[in-house]
Structures are given as structure tokens and as C-alpha cells.
Amino acid sequence: MLKKSGQTHPRLKKFATGLAFVIAGFGLILASLVWSFWGSSTKLPIVDGVTFSAKYSRELDLDPKAVLTALINDLGIRHFRMMSYWDIHEPADGTFDFSELDWQMKMAEESGSKVTLAVGLRQPRWPECHTPGWAKTLPDADKRIKLYEYMTKTIERYRFSPALESYQLENEALNTAFGECHDFDRARLVYEYNLVKGLDASHPIIISVSNEFGIPIGAPRGDEVGFSIYHRVYDAHVTHGYYEYPIPAWYHGLRAAVIERITHRQTVIHELQAEPWGPRATKDLSIEEQNKSMDAANLLGRYGYAKATGIRQFDFWGAEWWYWRLTQKNDPSLWNTAKQIFGKN
């Protein structure tokens, strides 16, 4: 007997009903994960800090010591992610000069601040992989040996610092889409993880995943997982305009909840966008252009967004630029907003 036109076949109807129940059930599971994560995490205090780069401060024509002093004394910041750039601290093969990182760590110690120290080849700020000129022409195998020697010197120098809280091993080590890097071998990352743990087992290691996506499934698994969160960026490839990721805060809370459930690791936002991402270097953008992707209102909004994820620790990205706007452009709006965020108002 033929089915009348417009009627739904009973089996198809059952399948659609079953699928709807499966989707609804899956949604309830995810929602329960997020609510459970929020319920436990929001009982913890917020630890907010900034990434600080002496190298980037100089690119903005700023005195790095003046920047760090202002961040500590004027804004009251007590958590920093700092870098151990290979090209800065081993300018010639076998010649080590840690003076720049020494004064940073000393200032952190004297102010009672805590530091996440980035180690390895790939570290925050362009060109991402900070290879010294003398090492760039070495074969990869020889370059790795030299890198491991440098990492060993770095960790041995700072592992007993009272300011040291954790290490960040590489920065988005497997991100092939950004930076002047070419060595994305996971085996190297595993070796470096074991190297750091062997030298200092008392401090946790943070390993980061990509900006908006990624779950750390492969080896090595750090003691904590780092996220980068950028919200409004300039698209230089297709639209040649600004793009805002349509991603709600709960999505990152869900990622953190899934990671915690699967790996039993906590998540930190080690790079929260708080400076412009425009078509050129920030200092070469007009103030109007900078404000298209970051201004004081957006800075406050990013803080609210980070808190809404449920993740309790986050380091802002762009504190040097706040100081640049304050001192070079006579614009205190970002600095005063940061004071509000860090409780100095």
C-alpha cells in the first residue's frame, strides 16, 4: 500500500525522534560538565597577571625596567609570565648572559610576585622561535643539542628562585600557522618535557594548546594546560578587515571542563588578548586603528569574558602597550582601566 503524499515514514519518524533524544542527552551531559566546572572553580580566588617581555618593551621604545616597575608598583600586579629568550641570553655559542632575566626575577622576588617562566625555543612575541643568529645555520640535530644545553643552564639558574611558580614549556609548540618556526616534532617536545622534569620536578609545567580549539590528547601532558584567547583580530588574508570570534565564554569553560575530566589537569589562560591585533605592528597603527580591536572598554570586557569562562588564572597580553599609551601618547584610559581590574582604584 502506498504512503500518502506528505506523510512521514514511521521508521524515519522514529529515527528523527531518537536522534533528537541523543542530541538532547549529549547537550545535557555537556551542560552538566560546564555547571560542575563552574560550581567548583568559582569557589577559588582569581589569580590575574600579565605577560611581560623586555624585548617587546624595547620594540615600543620603552625602558623595560621602567615598565616592570610601573606594573609592580602602580598597578600592583603580582603574577607574571616572563621569557627566557635564547637569542638574548646566549648571544654567542657557549657565552651566556642572563643579566636581563636576572633583574626581572629579582624584581619579582623583592615584590613578592610569582612567575611562570617560559622555556624552550618557541616563546611569546614575534618571531615566536627566538633562535640566536649563530644557531640558525646549524643542522637541526646540532641545534637541538645547543638548545637543550641552554635550557639546562636556564633551569639550573632559576629553579630555586622564590618567585618561580611554574614553567611554560614552548608556546603553542605545534602551531604551524604562525611564527618563523619550522621544527614541530612532537618527539622534541616530549624530550624537552622530560629534560625540564629531570632538572626540576618541584615546579609544574604548563603546556599550551591553540587559540580557540584543541584538547591535549597526545604526549607530553603537562601538569597544567594553557589557553590563548584572542577575540577581535585583523584578517589579512580574506576580508582585510576585523573579525570577532563568535565564541561564548562558556565554550572555553566547556573545554576546560572536558580537559579536567579527561586529563585531570587544570587550565590557565596564559594569553588573554588585551592589545590590538591590526594590519601592522601595533606602534605603527594610529590610535584610531588600535582602538578598532582594543580600547579601554574592550579591555574591561575581556576581563569579564575571562571570568565568565570559570577559569581562575589568566595573564593579560599587552601590558607593555598600556604603558606605551600612557607615557608615549598621554592616554591614561587603558592604564586606569587596568588599575580598576587589579584593584588599585
How would you summarize the topology of this molecule?
Elements: H1 10-41, E1 47-52, H2 54-59, H3 64-73, E2 79-83, H4 86-89, H5 99-111, E3 114-119, H6 140-158, E4 164-169, H7 186-199, E5 205-208, E6 224-229, E7 232-235, E8 241-244, H8 249-263, E9 266-273, H9 287-291, H10 296-309, E10 313-317, H11 319-328, H12 333-341
Parallel strand pairs: 1-2, 1-10, 2-3, 3-4, 4-5, 5-6, 6-9, 9-10
Antiparallel strand pairs: 7-8
Account of the protein in words:
The chain has an eight-stranded parallel barrel with strand order 1-2-3-4-5-6-9-10, surrounded by five helices. Strands 7-8 form a two-stranded antiparallel sheet. The longest helix has 32 residues, at 10-41. It has 345 residues and is an alpha/beta fold. It has helices spanning 10-41, 54-59, 64-73, 86-89, 99-111, 140-158, 186-199, 249-263, 287-291, 296-309, 319-328, 333-341; strands spanning 47-52, 79-83, 114-119, 164-169, 205-208, 224-229, 232-235, 241-244, 266-273, 313-317.
Which keywords apply here?
alpha/beta
Straight-line N-to-C gap: 79 Å
Q: Reading side by side through the largest sheet, how are the strands ordered?
A: 1-2-3-4-5-6-9-10
Overall number of strands = 10
Q: Which structural class should the secondary elements be placed in?
A: alpha/beta
> Biggest sheet: strands, sense, closure?
8 strands, parallel, barrel
DSSP strand content: 15-25%
Residue windows where pLDDT falls under 50 for at least 5 positions: none
Percent of residues in helices: 40-55%
- Helix run count: 12
Radius of gyration: 23 Å
Overall morphology: globular
Order of helices and strands: HEHHEHHEHEHEEEEHEHHEHH
Mean pLDDT: 90
